[in-house]
C-alpha cells in the first residue's frame, strides 16, 4: 500500500512538472507572439495611403515623396482605373468607404486617407504641403489611439460645426444645407447611435486610422454607408459634407472631437511646446472658400 502511495505521489508530481513545462511552452509562447506583434506594430507598422483623385490630377508626388508608404490612388471619374468607385458621389468619402469594403479582411496597421493634391488650403502646414504632414505623423500614436485627424487647427469645424437637432440659418449656404440634412442622414448611417445635439471636428476629411479601429464596426456597416451614399438624394457636395463631419464618429470618437491644438500637434506630429491660439486667421484668409476649396 505504501508503495502504491509513493507511485501515486510520483505520478502527481510528474503531472505538475509537465503542466508547468506545457504552460511555458504553449501559453507563454502565445503571449510572446502577441507581444512581439504589438512591438512590431509600434516600431514598424504596415501602412497605406488611400488618395481620392480625378483622372487629371497629378498624384506622382505621393509615390515620389512618400515612397515608404504603400499607395492606393483611386480615380473617381475613370471606370477603367485600377482603383475606382461604384459611383462618383460624396466627394472623397466614396473612395474611403470603397477601400475599406474592398480591403476589409486585409487592412494594414495604419491607413491614411487623403485628397490627391499635394498643396491644399486646409493642409495644416505653413506651405500647405501634405508631404511634411504625413512624414511627421507619429504612427505609434495612431495605432494606440486608433484615430487622428491630419489637421489640428480648429477653424473651421470646431468647437461645433453642426447642431442637427436645432438647425440655424447662420453661416454659409453649404453649412446650413448640411446641418438641415444631417439628422436624417445620421440616422441611416449610424442607426445604433442617437442623433447628436452637436457635431464638431477639424475639417477636412483627411485622417489616419488604425486597422483595429476600422474593425470595431463590421463590414456590413460600411456597406450600408456606401449604399446610403449611392442612393441619397443629397447632392455630391452635401452628402460629402455630411460624411466629412461623421468620420470621427464612425471611427468611435466623441461626436464633438476637438483636441486642444497644442496637444494635437504634440501627440500627432511630435511638434511640442508650441504656443497655440484659436487661429481664427484661417477663416479670415481663405478668400471665401468653403472647406472643399471652392467658392460658395
TrEMBL record:
Keywords: Membrane, Transmembrane, Transmembrane helix
Transmembrane segments: 12-31
Source species: Polytolypa hystricis (strain UAMH7299)
Protein name listed in UniProt: Uncharacterized protein
